[in-house]
Amino acid sequence: DPKAVYQFRKLTKQWVMVWKDEFNGEKLDPSKWAREENGYGGGNNERQFYSTDQKYAHTKNGMLNVSVYRDPHTTVDGKIQPYTSARIRTIHRGEWKYGRFEIRAKMPSGQGIWPAVWMLPTESPYGGWASSGEIDIIESRGSKVEEAVGSLHFGGPWPRNTHLTTSYKFPKKNAAEDFHVYAVEWNKDQITWALDGHIFQTIKKEQWRSEKAPDNATAP
Fold this sequence. Notes:
globular, single chain, four-stranded antiparallel beta sheet
């Protein structure tokens, strides 16, 4: 239309969607997610076996359902875990340095349940955990669903690791009563945590460090 007026704007500070999963398929998308098998506590002395069986992580009605059952499992060396659940990850499928990460989730309640969504490096250029860092987008304790927790792990390898963490109190419906949007914005200078659009923690690069790279201001 020769009479139309067009306005062009350079998008310098706009977010661009590069990855998403709405879980609309009948099964978990293997191009986006890998199922992890782990029978030794997942690094936290957990009393559960992580199974790749679809029973413990399946999609239905546009949602991913991660479940835990009283299904005991015995590892090949005789270790017995009284519960079975699932752990899925995007490793080698979706990997990003910096960006905005959003997860819409409803968390379970119950003593001993502690679901989380976190980010780890594919490689560990600064050494083993937590020298190469970990960003916890959301941790939700089943016994304290009235609050959500965001954390940053860094420093040296265990036990010389350290962390910074802040909890957020839900003003209305808690983590188990309703879905909420948990978000992290990460750039080279700072990491910010938000819940339903409310920023509740900002950690700047001066606050984190890597024992293996003391002269690198942004490591890990």
